[in-house]
Design goal:
The structure holds two protein chains of two kinds. By secondary structure, chain A is α+β, with helices and mostly antiparallel strands. Helix content of chain A is about 30%, strand content about 40%. The longest helix of chain B has 15 residues. The chains are: A alpha+beta, B alpha/beta. Thiamine diphosphate binds next to α15 and α18 of chain B.
Chain lengths: ~160, ~575
């Protein structure tokens, strides 16, 4: 099953490689990993999307917790949480009908066009992974120039929070 | 006190109570070696290979319970140390390894003797540090010792760039008495309700077994374990790493379990209804095929490392906590509860176990002209009165040592269980001898393994570390040969040790005593002689039966009750069967 694990990690040089190294050394899946510092400069917040049986997920959380650089960890999957991913898509857009079609689709998905040239559009879109997938599917494959996805990040709903 | 980085390292080690440092110099640690040279509080042991430094520190740590400390240079010094670091990691041994690094300003430029020591060691350390700021040096060293020695112990690498140790840059130094790491908080206590449930389950057992490992030794919980086992009257089996925690000669000890464990221990594992595991980790050499592991048992697992619990085998009652603290609590609860051991069931269980024991699964055929390897270990046991520290390498000889030397005390049996590192035995023995100069220290090895770190014979001479090398010389990489015999129809592929050196001459060249023995009649005298020479390192080269095998054996995909047993035991079983008495 797919799990979304959120971590507070020491903001130190080796922390990221310890975590990614753990996944590769133990053969765990990693779908995406995002990381950036928080309002507290000593801490980074990381979101890992992974898949595995209950037993594997239990091992993943235990092994992550064992790392000295991991300060706090929570598996959001069971709880009530929000997950979002951001994407840039650059598409070919030459000719009136093509430009109109891209615009129309982007409106439906509530995407924003953030850069325009005579021949291309660059579109920004935020949402669940599924929504981003759907947007890409809606484009003609031949029109896509490049896709940049951030990987998912998550946060608990309500008053619950992953803090120190 | 104003000190340079190098002086801080030395002063810190003194303040931390470190007496011995195993190391090898080089460019990146020259400043540190200069500071070392100016003092006598910390004794430096110059090994002959950095692998030797890590194994020696490891042996020292296992025998004393104190952390072992190493100092090596950057690049090849650090990479040579990796095997020893990985060895300590797999067996949870507290080590602090200081590696020199190229100066900060050239890190990342492929400088001479630069290797990313933090990166290279990362998968086989408990934690590691790169010191970037002289002002953090003492605190980082303290953190390293703190992490290495607490919780589930393990090796910690501290990588120190050369500029940090420069002699002319001095800063105030104060020994950091305590450090805190906000994300690191080992739990020793164990959950009281879980402990209560465990005690209830234990006392409801009809066919219980206690299975313990190296965690008991690391936690210094032997006394508590002994009390626990005796109070319950249950059978106990120990892993290769756990031997000695409970006395090997006690009647409640039914032998080591696992791949080369006793018939009775493995059968009892298979048939038990309640299994309590303390400080062991259900390693694949212990469980055999997991799908057939302990099919009738409810399992209690006590470990300080939560990640060890339910990793390979699911625990019905998991308890995260230190072996010592949890055992103390269990003893209390056993005294308090109204529940009692089911004596009738236990008697019947012991009767079954004794009938398995009677088959004597370690028995071997004595030969007139050939020394059997088992006999050599038995002789060692006799001559040292069971009171020696025994290190070993990896192979058949290691299994014979574990099977035939009955360790009555913890920290006496020192071997590389998890990583299975050939070359471990001799340097480890040096570390032990350094810690206990008045004790007999023997290294049981094979002609293959000993050659992996044989250069340390030179260190033995320089530092007057008279260890006894008991070489079970079968002219084969015996354990590999055994697998090729069993599973590859005797296609012996590159396991014959041709062109062996004359070990007697070799030892003499190193300034020690060499004795060669090839006849059973001479074994006793040779062994006696080796240990009589108290202040000499002796290499006892024992020419043994070439094709002896280690029995019993659980081979791949097999369960505990599907052991391959020795030809001798097969005969015993056949005659029991004929009489209708085979259980
Ligand atoms: C460094 C290393 N390389 C290879 C092995 C694989 N291996 C395990 S046992 C063994 C044979 C050891 O031979 P020897 O030391 O003569 O012991 P014997 O089995 O003959 O008693 C080998 C090669 C190992 N354990 N360690
Ligand atoms: Mg051999």
């Amino acid at each position: 099953m797919r799990h979304i694990i959120s971590l507070l990690v020491e903001n130190e040089a080796g922390a990221l490689s310890r975590i990614s190294g753990l996944f590769s050394a133990r053969g765990y899946n990693i779908e995406s990993l995002t990381v950036a510092t928080t309002e507290d400069q000593t801490l980074s917040r990381m979101t890992i999307i992974t898949t595995g049986s209950d037993r594997i997920i239990e091992q993943i959380t235990k092994q992550l917790n064992k790392l000295i650089d991991v300060v706090k960890l929570q598996d959001f999957t069971e709880g009530n949480f929000i997950e979002r991913e951001m994407m840039f898509v650059k598409v070919k857009a030459d000719g009136e009908s093509q430009r109109a079609e891209v615009k129309r689709l982007s409106d439906i998905f509530r995407a924003r066009i953030i850069d325009v040239t005579d021949t291309t559009f660059c579109i920004e879109l935020t949402g669940s992974g599924d929504k981003l997938d759907a947007y890409i599917r809606s484009m003609h494959e031949n029109n896509i120039v490049e896709v940049v996805r951030s990987g998912s990040m998550g946060i608990m709903r309500g008053e619950k929070a992953l803090t120190l | 006190m104003e000190l340079s980085g190098s002086e801080i390292i030395i002063q810190f080690l003194k303040d931390e109570g470190v007496k011995h440092l195993f190391g090898y110099p080089g460019g990146a640690v020259l400043h540190i070696y200069d500071a070392l040279q100016k003092q006598d509080d910390v004794e430096h042991i110059l090994v002959r290979h950095e692998q030797g430094a890590t194994h020696a520190a490891d042996g020292y740590a296992r025998a004393t319970g104190k952390p072992g400390v190493c100092l090596v240079t950057s690049g090849p010094g650090a990479t040579n140390a990796i095997t020893g670091i990985a060895t300590a990691y797999m067996d949870s041994v507290p080590l602090v390894v200081i590696t020199g690094q190229v100066p900060s300003h050239v890190i990342g430029q492929d400088a001479f003797q630069e290797v990313d020591a933090v990166g290279v060691s990362r998968p086989c350390v408990k934690h590691n540090f790169l010191v970037k700021d002289l002002n953090k040096l003492a605190e980082t060293l303290k953190k390293a010792f703190f992490v290495a020695t607490t919780g589930r112990p393990g090796p910690v690498v501290v990588d120190i760039p050369k500029d940090i140790t420069a002699p002319h840059i001095k800063i105030p130094y104060q020994y950091p008495e305590k450090v805190e790491i906000r994300s690191y908080n080992p739990n020793f206590k164990g959950h009281p309700r879980q402990i209560k449930r465990a005690v209830e389950l234990l006392l409801s057992a009809k066919r219980p077994i206690i299975y313990t490992g190296g965690g008991i030794i690391m936690a210094d919980a032997s006394q508590e374990l002994r009390e626990f086992v005796r109070k319950l009257g249950y059978p106990i089996t120990q892993t290769l790493m756990g031997l000695g925690a409970f006395p090997g000669t006690d009647s409640q000890f039914i032998g080591m379990l696992g791949m080369h464990g006793t018939y009775e221990a493995n059968m009892a594992m298979h048939e038990c209804d309640v299994l309590i595991c303390i400080g062991a980790r259900f390693d694949d050499r212990i469980t055999g095929v997991t799908s057939k592991f302990c099919p009738y048992a409810q399992i209690i697992h006590i470990d300080i490392d939560p990640a060890s619990i339910s990793k390979t085998i699911n625990a019905d009652i998991p308890i995260v906590g230190g072996a010592k603290q949890v055992l103390i609590e269990m003893l209390k609860q056993i005294d308090m509860t109204e529940l009692e051991v089911d004596k009738t069931a236990l008697d019947a269980w012991w009767k079954t176990i004794k009938s398995w024991q009677a088959q004597d699964s370690f028995a071997y055929e004595q030969t007139k002209d050939l020394i059997q390897p088992q006999a050599a270990v038995e002789e060692l046991y006799k001559v040292t009165k069971g009171d020696a520290y025994v290190t070993s390498d990896v192979g058949q000889h290691q299994m014979y040592a574990a099977q035939f030397y009955h360790f009555d005390e913890p920290r006496r049996w020192i071997n590389s269980g998890g990583l299975g590192t050939m070359g471990f035995g001799l340097p480890a023995a040096m570390g032990v001898k350094l810690a206990f100069p008045d004790k007999d220290v023997a290294c049981v090895t094979g002609e293959g393994s000993i050659q992996m770190c044989i250069q340390e014979l030179s260190t033995c001479l320089q530092y007057d570390l008279p260890v006894k090398i008991i070489n079970l010389n079968n002219r084969y990489l015996g354990m590999v040969r055994q697998w090729q015999e069993f599973f590859y129809e005797k296609r012996y592929s590159h396991v014959y040790m041709d062109s062996l050196p004359d070990f007697v001459k070799l030892t003499e060249a190193y300034g020690h005593v060499g004795i060669r023995v090839d006849h059973p009649d001479d074994l006793h005298d040779a062994m006696k002689e080796a240990f009589k020479l108290k202040d000499r390192t002796v290499f006892l080269d024992i020419i043994t039966d070439q094709e002896a095998n280690v029995y019993p054996m659980i081979s791949a995909g097999k369960a505990h009750n599907e052991m391959d047993i020795s030809p001798l035991q097969q005969k015993v079983q056949a005659s029991l069967k004929a009489k209708g008495e085979l259980v």
